[in-house]
Design goal:
Two copies of one chain form a homodimer. By secondary structure, chain A is α/β, with parallel strands linked by helices. Helix content of chain A is 44%, strand content 13%.
């Protein structure tokens, strides 16, 4: 069984600990208790916010195994030039939205791996393969593009749900009413590309509805701003192709 | 079996025809062939774009049954004062995203019904009940609020997917890679409210990542604008509660 140090107290650390339970020997460490690190461990995963990765890395003792961070956006070279990280290092990025109170099917999480050399990459891929069936390598540029796309497809999408939820609750409507529509919106992606699947007043350039909705949002200036920005983008994207 | 005229050539008309197949006698009519309407039909559903509803309604012959439109935003009173619609009328709004090439489980579609009187409402609810298990009444104000929320939760969400797809394809990445993350984003809604489920750099106020992503979007001005607008809205929404 592999021995892994997992450094962090956030959602990624919590979920990786759970995912490896019974499949590897996990030593959970916080950035403040680095003295409890197992220096003989095969892997040390730094699961902290991007702005803290370098700081944590600088404080690491000399470790026998591979050091990796779990960030989508921070490049692999955050570790380069650190004298204490003399061995091989890499990136172990799980592209997923981790909430503490939501259970997850870890086997479906896509992992994107990068390493200083082929052997390191292979080792990190094997580690990810213990929990997931969906493991690929990706260099830092590709991984950052994935992270940007994930922010649009997940974080921003969820914020639109949150805005809809607030607006509905002010109109005595339950957000759960929206779930069949949301599930169909996502279900369609198995048959159609999002471009083909686009519906609604903006892609039809239905100015009457758009103006009526903007009017309904007069007391919701942030939603109105987002309504305008995304509607303009839809109109620009499709031009006259649906007329 | 009920007899229904369905007026329209778009996605809503097409899907309602399919949904009622074998469950009602459907007479499909286009706005240009109104002379083929069955004046004895129990229902006439006007499934045309919002800006065309009134025009079509004005051209209808005297009909024996109930006339209804299928729009989320157009109020019921679009029919008021029309001399040819002397009987009862209403609204038959299926809150769903209809794409011609995507099959649908009609039984889950939420229908929102409004009628000039209780008997009309009951008849329209019964009609919706033939195909769906999810039928409610809603007045025009409530229905419009639902439609606005649906635009955010479905049309705008799908556009974020389309932008992500385009960006990924320019970075030699397949959009299908994003599906497990998207499915988890939606799956979480069964356990958490969208507000509780929010993750990502904006809710963490991770300026380093946000700036790095904005920089990555320099050649994508529309995506950059949307990135800024939604990130600002997330930061405003959560303030310091996740710090």
């Amino acid at each position: 069984m592999s021995k892994i140090n997992i450094i962090g107290r956030g959602n990624v650390a919590t979920h990786l600990e759970k995912a490896f339970r019974g499949k590897a020997m996990v030593n959970a460490v916080t950035p403040r208790t680095l003295e409890t690190l197992d220096v003989e461990a095969d892997f040390t995963l730094i699961c902290v916010s991007d702005s803290a990765i370098k700081e944590v890395a600088e404080k690491l003792p000399e470790l026998k195994g591979i050091v990796a961070h779990t960030s989508g956006t921070t490049p692999i070279n955050v570790f380069s030039g650190l004298e204490n990280i003399s061995g091989s290092y890499g990136v172990f990025y799980p592209m997923q939205t981790f909430s503490k109170d939501s259970p997850l099917d870890y086997s479906r999480i896509p992992f994107f791996i990068e390493g200083t050399d082929e052997a390191t990459e292979r080792s990190l891929c094997e580690l990810a393969g213990i929990i997931s069936n969906n493991v690929e390598t990706a260099n830092s540029d590709k991984r950052k593009a994935l992270h940007v796309a994930a922010v649009f497809s997940c974080n921003f999408v969820n914020h639109l749900f949150a805005l809809a939820e607030g607006y509905m609750s002010e109109h005595s409507l339950s957000f759960s009413t929206m779930l069949p529509l949301i599930e169909e919106t996502v279900g369609k992606l198995h048959n159609l590309s999002p471009r083909e699947a686009q519906t609604g007043p903006a892609v039809r350039k239905d100015r009457m509805i758009i103006d009526s909705h903007l009017n309904a949002l007069n007391n919701y200036p942030e939603m109105k701003e987002i309504y305008k920005t995304i509607t303009d983008s839809i109109i620009n994207t499709y031009g006259n192709e649906r007329n």
